[in-house]
Design a protein that fits this description.
About 5% of the residues lie in helices and about 35% in strands. With about 100 residues, it is mostly beta strands. The protein has one domain: OB fold (Dihydrolipoamide Acetyltransferase, E2P).
């Protein structure tokens, strides 16, 4: 799972019927500088994936998402999906790991 911040949404004209009732979100991945508050804007310079969401996340929410074959697990059949949200985070704490 990866943490990310919802920075927008994608509107589709047509989609596979399996995607009804959900939406697509633009998500900025959160690295160490975003998780610790060192990046005041909270938006990373990393590539922002489009993430399938059926949990109801909105702009500015912090989510956890998975990519790859794990993203297709909730579906009964093969589906063209690369990333799916799996949790909406209420709050988080992050401390940089120390080296021994």
């Amino acid at each position: 799972m990866k943490p990310g911040k919802v920075v927008g949404k994608v509107t589709l004209h047509q989609a596979d019927p399996a995607f009804r009732g959900a939406r697509w979100l633009m998500v900025a991945p959160m690295g160490e500088s975003e998780l610790t508050g060192q990046n005041p804007g909270g938006i990373s310079s990393e590539w922002s994936p489009v993430v399938y969401d059926n949990l109801g996340a909105g702009d500015g929410d912090t989510i956890l998402y998975v990519e790859g074959s794990e993203a297709t697990q909730p579906f009964d059949r093969p589906i063209p999906l690369d990333a799916i949200s799996v949790a909406i985070i209420d709050s988080h704490e992050f401390a940089t790991p120390t080296q021994s």
